[in-house]
Amino acid sequence: MQDAAKLDQENPLGVDGFEFVEFTGPEPEAMISRLELMGFTPTHVNPANDVVRLKQGDITMLVHRTPAGQAADFAKDHGPSANGMAFRVANAKAAYEGALARGARAAEGVHGGALANDYPYVLQGIGGSLLYVIDQYGEAGSLYDAWDEIEGWEEAERKNSVGLEILDHLTHNVRRGEMRTWSGFYNSVFNFEEQKYFDIKGKATGLFSQAMIAPDRAIRIPLNESQDENSQIEEFIRRYNGEGIQHIALTTANIFETVEAMRARGVDFQDTIETYFELIDKRLPGHGEDVERMRKNRILIDGSDEEGLLLQIFTQDTFGPIFFEIIQRKGNEGFGNGNFQALFDSIELDQIRRGVIKVDA
User: Fold this and answer.
1) Of 70, 153, 157, 345, which is most buried with the most CB atoms under 10 A?
2) What is the pLDDT of residues 127-142, one digit of tens each?
């Protein structure tokens, strides 16, 4: 009983990982096709609102095929976008009521949400998105049992999978001055704590990032805030027309096989400066990874003997300015401190090439 009381105090709302990310946009079939290229398979359709569930491993993505209500309004404001996400919880009603008591706000205009028009346990999320709390998973039964099942999806999933397993983290881009607002939200409502803090500077721009982690250690939400008017964070906010989900990180047990399969299907990844690969052995002596294969696939590596290794790579923009991260953890539970700078540099280089920012010769 003592351990249970301690758990309740540490994890007051009983969070237990991500359940789904919800997408909307003017061309939903193109979004579904893009997710299928990444190894996801349509499994169910919500008969109430034509939302399609796509699955791979323990990851679920939902796409509004005929957006209405909140999803339609969100797509009108943001274009192709992530209009919601869901946390698994032990008890949805208790978690929802507890969240309101701890300072969260009930979502307005939930009509048109992914779970149908009357799902009651939805909070206001980042940039006007929806934050659902869900207790139908695992032994409690699937949330999608009441949806229309697509025949043969299990075999189709086995054939289409590229080895992605779980949703590792989901990064928000926020307006300047709002990083602490949102870290405070996740802390006060769900008892997240700060896992990492970054102060990243490139040739011409910079950002702050505060990585928050939930009590279950399965939900990670990094928060990015620009240090200036021209950084990639500000460009995202301009393109997206507001704050929102910047990228979604998905795990794999073999990043080389996963990335090579995705490349073969036509998925494009962000590039990295060549000198990054030339310095890997000096930066991480004895890492034991195939540097030439990393160079060929533009895969990044970070970590240490004490913390373990982390391999990661980022796709090009996939839905508007939203992109995906593919990550393999070999004992390392961080975010790739060294790679964070490399990612920033690579995106900033692309901004310079496109003329978004200018640097002195």
Assistant:
1) 70
2) 999 999 999 998 888 9
